[in-house]
User: Fold this.
Amino acid sequence: MFADVLRRDASRIGAHLDEVLKGQPDLPVIEGMRYAVSSGKRLRGFLVMESARLHGVSETQSIWAAAAIEAIHAYSLVHDDLPCMDDDDLRRGMPTVHRKWDDGTAVLVGDALQTFGFELVLDQACHGDAAVRSDLALSLARASGHKGMVLGQALDIAAETVETPLTLEQITQLQAGKTGALIVWSAEAGARLAQADPLPLTSYATALGLAFQIADDILDVEGDETTVGKAVGKDASRGKATFVSLLGLEGAKARASELVEAACDALSPYGTKAHTLNEAARFVISRDT
Assistant:
């Protein structure tokens, strides 16, 4: 069952992060790093480990790349929650890092988690071949930086002040960076570790990432703050264009379902071995957090 594999992988990734952070001084920045990576579904880490299993890569290797993407994702959330960006008080039902400590500590926690992610993926334990580790690091830099996630965040910030709401095409481009880029890297990681063709997983994750964001937009309308673990209804209050505002609630749900089917179709070369990844795609649009 996908839910069991997700929980197991999340637990293993959490334990690995604890282990590699062990022995560090008890400073606010270190405590903040531990706090920021201490919870969450770890869906991106799961995608790394499951795509690695699909290619026969051992978990002793894939756990490093899985921990790396969770560190990078956590950094993005810590910075995204800051008052100068989304200004959120809660993340996963807990105070955001800048609320638990302060803005300066949150900036440094995010900075440290970003570099920590690259440290993890470049560790020799991740792969014995330096060329493979280099490929993972370069592709992660592109996915998380100005060509990927950061670009999406910048477009998102700019969208808050434009006079004309973004079109569906523009929203899709924005979210392909902000949400999709790290999801694509995660799914490709197993193939990169195995030095195999990542294209089927690229297609899978591209559709999955967009479905994930549409589900987020739906949760912002239908979700409960206590269940979701963060404020809801913020997009509408800011007048931001979303998949729901552009497609309508039912239209957004239908589009998300279409994307899940496209994601599953992309996995056909793997046959029944991709069963868990198929379940993951369906989970993305059925979740309530």
